[in-house]
């Protein structure tokens, strides 16, 4: 059986999932809905989609009877709920980008619609699906380190990635997208819960926007990097950040493809001179945090500390898991297990598929998710999907509780 997919939102994520499904022969991409004519046309060309299956809005697609097995919903954060509800009611299986929705009420409506219509809903918490994560989970489940007591987890966002997505880009302003914790670190809160296999009881959190503020603007700086007199001494210069990716086919898709369809030196210059990605990082438009810590208390007493920070290289997450009989250390590439009984160390090389960024499909995580989703559709085995409605709602609830704790400077009981 060939699985068929319709893409709602043909931007960076929607196009990338479609490409993976097509290139790996996992599914046929048969329809696309996106208001951007260039994006629609690009997908139509790449996957041979018929003219009458190109839609300018998700509503045009859902006005028709179901025309594919599943939809990929990769619209902006605040535009997930309505298409998800409409598609579930039409009987589409759903691959839904994270976050499910910006609010708990909307996320609950999506869960209810998926359950009521008995459709498969997979949320794109891609980190759960990598060989690295599966190996960590296996070692923990086999009791190789005893009972987990403490976890330390770092999300190194990367200095230029923060500037690109969370200062100049789509997730810079919370009211237009989501909090940083929901937009970016919902992956981490979800992944930690998956690893520990226990519900979170209480959370606390601190963090803020420390650096990317107007008061940190260097003396003499201009409004745009292309004309800024101090551009050469600024680590966040858009010219320096983006020019090095010219001619690199991987990075032409991301991040350059986000700035412009014309990835020539002239096209980039124009984007930097006119578009949002050439604006000074100290302009003051952005309001999401650039660093945050979350402390989590799990039922049964285990604790985890999570740090998200902009001020790193863009790299894989780093995690240390401390158990009663051993400890694990992982950096996205290698896992080291220290067994206390024998006082020996064992190393597992997981060799991720490329680097940690979206350009590389998050080290193969995106491909792993698409394989799991299409296999679940092909075989009917829904256990292949670990990021279903209930699991995702549970981990989003922790994110919302942590954000409340940060804003109210309090300790919040999850589900309170
Ligand atoms: N899982 C991950 O690791 C990951 C990584 C990055 C982004 N995301 C999430 O994926 C989603 C999409 O992000 P992106 O980077 O692809 O954004 P994007 O802006 O590149 O793509 C969004 C697309 O949706 C289209 N769109 C807008 N209104 C529409 C409508 N009414 N009907 C149909 N299409 C419409 C836009 O034209 C655009 O092409 C976001 O929710 C984001 O948070 C997830």
Q: What topology emerges from the helices and strands here?
A:
Layout: E1 3-8, H1 12-23, E2 27-33, H2 37-47, E3 54-55, H3 58-62, E4 70-73, H4 81-89, E5 93-96, H5 104-116, E6 121-123, H6 131-141, E7 148-156, H7 159-167, H8 180-183, H9 186-196, E8 200-208, H10 238-243, H11 249-253, H12 256-259, H13 265-274, E9 291-298, E10 303-309, E11 318-323, E12 326-330, E13 334-339, E14 344-349, H14 361-379, H15 389-408, E15 412-413
Parallel strand pairs: 1-2, 1-4, 2-3, 4-5, 5-6, 7-10
Antiparallel strand pairs: 7-11, 8-9, 8-15, 9-10, 11-12, 12-13, 13-14
Helix pairs in contact: 1-2, 1-14, 4-5, 5-15, 9-15
This protein binds nicotinamide-adenine-dinucleotide.
